[in-house]
Amino acid sequence: HSDVCSCEPIPFHPPTVSRSTQELDDLFRKQVLSELEANPNKYPDRTWGRNINEHVAKLLEVARPVRLRPYPTEQTKALVESNSPLGDPLVVVNQHVFDWPGDRRPIEHFFKHMEAFTDERISVQVPSRFTNVASCTVKEFSDVRERFLDTRAVAEDGPWNVLDMANVLPARLPGCLTGLNCQVLRVLQHKVLSEGTAERTEASTVEWKRWKNVIDWVLLSEGGNNTAAHTDSNAFATWLTVQEGCIGFIWLSQPQDHERDSWILAHDTYTGGEWRFVVIRAGDTIIFNSGTIHSVCRPLGTQTLAFGGHFLRWTDLQKWLDVLTLQMEHPSMTNEDMTESAPKYVRTVLGLVQKGDYTELLGGKEAADKFCDRAQV
Length: 377
Prior knowledge:
Helix content: 25-40%
């Protein structure tokens, strides 16, 4: 990668020479930064792409690549099942990477599995859209498929980002997240759709639509599509397993209260605190806790496919409520409208806790009572 400062879009391929992961991550960071600095006016003023790229470039200038030791499944599972805070993101290896046949790229195989949706439509983030309208627009699924399968295509509207694609493959929680402590959302989903029975869910289509599937989904992006710093909506914790390509992950490491407050007030310009950077490669899973302030970047010319999902730990319900309250007070912290979803989640979780079935997982009766008192305010 001697040409990391080139203005030309170069797909990122880690060199074969022996270098530490931290050094390779820094090369990745420099490449994306050089691409952003080479063409700062790629998008017109007051477009989503212009604003986001300017913001991500500032973060990449200050972010320090760190070496996150890949944890084995059992060690990570022991951590997330404890009442210890997760702190900085965790990288885990050998989690659920789909068994892709070797004759084609995973993205090509994925679209083969999605052939039944050819006549459907889907929301796509387009960076050339102006900020006075939503960053997403609806596209024909067939157009999305054609665009991603033709890797030679160069679109004038900028690289697309497909955020809410359903996953028809047998995806599952990473093995380290299958313990009791991480199942709040799965219990929640069944409880609200089961209509008083422990049998298999038979909820109506209308009821399903009221509860967006947050447990597993697909992220599909073109190279050069970036995401500004934010916290994930409804204060959920998140996991991402990369299936194809490489994703740069930037986060504000364990911010002090005043640093978080400063970011909230100037979320699109703030570069204070300790920003960190790591590259998540195919086969890697990153896990980050509720309220993690993070941004995502991708080098030009390289498509990425990742399976992901949200989860919530019983032992984190107090923290979840803290972050959720902040998000409701400051909607700019997240990139989704939570006006209806947040109160609904709080009411439903409160109902579960009040029954007393999960008191031990919450840390005992005192912790459960404290949560109930706060959640009812």
